[in-house]
Amino acid sequence: SRTLRLAVIPGDGIGQEVVAEGLKVLSSALPADVKVETVEYDLGARRYHATGETLPDSVLDELKGADAILLGAIGDPSVPSGVLERGLLLKLRFAFDHHVNLRPGKLFPGVKSPLAGDPQIDFVVVREGTEGPYVGNGGSLRTGTEQEVATEVSLNTAFGIERVVRDAFARAQARPRKKLTLVHKNNVLVHAGHLWKRIFDQVAAEFPEVTTDYLHVDAATIFFVTQPERFDVIVTDNLFGDILTDLAAAVTGGIGLAASGNINPSGAFPSMFEPVHGSAPDIAGQGKADPTATVLSVAMMLSHLGYTEQAAAIESAVTADLAERGSLTAPRTTSEIGDALAARVAG
Ligand code: IPM
Ligand code: MN
Questions:
Q1: Could you tell me if 229 and 123 are in contact, meaning their C-beta atoms sit under 8 angstroms apart?
Q2: What is the pLDDT of residues 114-140, one digit of tens each?
Q3: d(Cα 26, Cα 5) in Å, to the nearest integer?
Q4: Helix, strand, coil % (nearest 5) of the chain?
Q5: Scanning 67, 123, 148, 225, which has its CA 20 to 30 A from the CA of 6?
Q6: Please, which domain of life does this record's source organism belong to (predicted)?
């Protein structure tokens, strides 16, 4: 028998509610001989107000021993913008070197896209997770004066680009369509953009079966809406990837369905799985949040940990549930959706 040591960070707002359903579906998916040992960490707005801490070193140390981390959502209007995002969520991604931020954009059968026609959308965004403008390489000068200056310098290293580009090529190679699109803005961001393009072209030579494409990020947003079928795997930097994956969620049935994995492919530190959505304080505590994004993130976690069959079972359950949602007459609560998914997984 095996034990899965899972660190759980419900976080703020609807985080608590959706994570509970994710865990429910997880236990119904795992074989009887796999035990889940969950340790829940109280991090987020409540702890910040109580102690001033966002992510103490002692907690960070403990988290290192987990097989994976499941996170709900971070952020609360009572905390100044950026404190929890930088001090907790991004700190985890950076400390655990989550350089592959995997975000599928898939339109499930029966799910209504706001896009015209009946688009076939099935791509995955490989968002770089540890560099770009997210590193905090900036500052303010002459704060509060009319001459105030603020910088936010994007950090791009050959090492960081190459490893994520290589990962994206490998993913593209493993998919039926074998297509990889690099998204950047190298007509304006000539320093970082050309470095990305040069490394992309170099690595491409090692993957002759993969068809490659390049798009400026502004053009990519057009194609996300007008021709989403053209995408298979997309690789891009941290900020472009953040923006594009919200758009991806919007065109594939909304943020309630969008899953993500912050992956450390080497396994040196635990990978972390979380819905793309935020804490949604406006609907928190009302049982209105859709836990599907978290449930799909749990499936990504299982697949990452090698439980391929169990991950597929969760995906099938979600696929079947989504196909029937259109015919439901009344909205379901968060836990009703979780129950339905868990029941389907249990078969
Ligand atoms: C996301 C979020 C985060 C990000 C924020 C909350 C730091 O928007 O996971 O997409 O920008 O990466
Ligand atoms: Mn985002």
A1: no
A2: 999 989 999 999 999 999 999 999 999
A3: 13
A4: 45, 20, 35
A5: 123
A6: Bacteria
Q: Is the CB of 87 under 6 A from ligand 1?
A: no
Q: Count CB-CB contacts under 10 A for residue 2.
A: 12
Residue 274's nearest CA partner among 249, 300, 253 is: 300
Element (H, E) at 275: strand 271-275
Considering the entire predicted model, what is its pTM?
0.97
For the chain, list the domains and their CATH numbers: 1-102+259-347 (3.40.718.10), 113-252 (3.40.718.10)
Q: Which residues on neighbouring strands pair with residue 141, listed in sequence order?
A: 149
For atom 7 of ligand 1, which residue has the closest CA? 85
> For residue 302, what are its two tokens?
């299982």
Name the residue at shortest CA distance from atom 8 of ligand 1: 242
Decide if the complex's ipTM is over 0.95.
Answer: yes
Catalytic site residue from 42, 61, 201, 218: 218
State which residues have CB under 5 angstroms from ligand 2, the bound ion: 242
Q: What are phi and psi of 205, to 5 degrees?
A: -60, -25
Beta-bridge partner residues of 151: 139
